[in-house]
Model the fold of this input.
Amino acid sequence: AARLIGGEWIDRPSGESLFREIYNPQIHVRPLDASGDPDRRKWLMPVKGHSMIIGLDPGSMNNAFTFQQWIPVDGHMKWVAFDEIVTIRKRISYPDFIPMVARRVKFWREATGSTAKDMPMVWISDNSAFNQFRAAQGSYDVLEIEKVWEESCRAKYGLESIKIRPAPKFNDSVMIRVQTLQKYLAADEFIVSSRCTRIQAMLMQLEAQKQKPGSAFDPKLSLSPKRSEHLHVFDAVTYPMLLASISPTALLPNRGLGQSL
Done:
């Protein structure tokens, strides 16, 4: 069977999906149209007075940047993914890609009448972006992104400086991120904007690694994502969740960069 996502029919995963049995578009996607399907003509708006949390999984060929907030909805704190910028199997340099992110930040602040003070940015990536040297750039991903932002985006778009924070990586941290997102979905504490088609596809399509034939069931494999284009989106969504679960104050903006609550 297939599902219609973002105007395209997407096959159901052939293996065991990590989230499909928990994820329900009618519960987790907003806004919906009169038929109860995601309304692609509309989108969720970020809320003024809360941080704009940008989760990023950068790379030379694949980039996934998600825009989320951790806000009260219907009396409960929930993660709300309101935007995304994702490129897969496309070589786009940071001087071309990062201005797209800056324009999106500027757009949402203007759309909500917000400033750096009442909608500060919090950028979170995985620590490999801090220590994986890119020979072609002669630098590290995080340093290059911050450099491009400072030189090409900050003044041009009237934004503040950024300082990317590392999400921890440790034994079983990927499985913990899977379980964390499963927990939020099961508790109806994760909401996706109808226009975030890449996040929706990830929730339907990301598969667990296959069990080894003839071996006993390995619970770790059942919680380990299989490599695919959806993995980058999963990483960008869950890096902030993991960091926040360990250090809730990580969602507070950096002081001294023009970001304050």
Summary: The longest strand covers residues 76-87. The chain has seven helices and eleven strands. The two ends are 47 Å apart (CA to CA).
